[in-house]
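REQUEST FORM: STRUCTURE PREDICTION
Request ID: SP-0412
Submitted by: Lab K.M.
Chain count: 1
Length (residues): 221
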Amino acid sequence: MSCFKQFDLVGFISNILAVILGIVITFSIQGIIDSEKEKENVKSALTLVKEELMGCKSDLESCAYYLDRENYVANYFNDHSKNLKECPEDSLQLYWGLFSSEMILTLPDDALQLLKTSSLFSAIDDNSLSLKIIRAYDQCEALRQVFNRHESHKTEFSTSAYTQYGSESFKNEKGNFSISKFLSTTQGGNLKQLLMNQDGSLIRVGIKDLDDAITAIEEYL
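STATUS: Completed
RESULT:
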């Protein structure tokens, strides 16, 4: 009778241990699956971040080139200030369009926000990478503001000149717009000086932070 009871107890304990072991194995396997799934989600999110930063980099490079062209045109007008009438008319019209127009830069951060809101940021097991991503987006915002403020000042100078003198005062004897007359005003001179003082160098320096983040993401992936 005693052996029978001992046999039941051993069987019972064995069954309990088997159940516990099964649960442990199940959770372990599930944990591995969840971990792998999280890694894949992190990689997918980082791929989106990389693509977004590459797009931002391309836009910033275009803006840097745009500032270079503005700078070139401003120096052209300055160098030919005494003989603008002798310059090719088609070149003057082309240059004036760039000189007087305003360009607005917008840079997305949707991939970064997705990374934050999905709590995947904390799953990146590389603090250096996380910091580089944050720094890259901060740089994007800073450069966006610099560029748009610069372009806004262009419009302010032009608007101020037209408001003070009126559009008719900038026409030549043929009734066409006179670049020389506009540049002779205080606002026109300020606009020319603004563009002469800034090219795309500042933006190109800032792009390095984007390159660092993109490279780090590629190495992580």
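NOTES: The mean pLDDT is 85.
Reviewed by: T.R.
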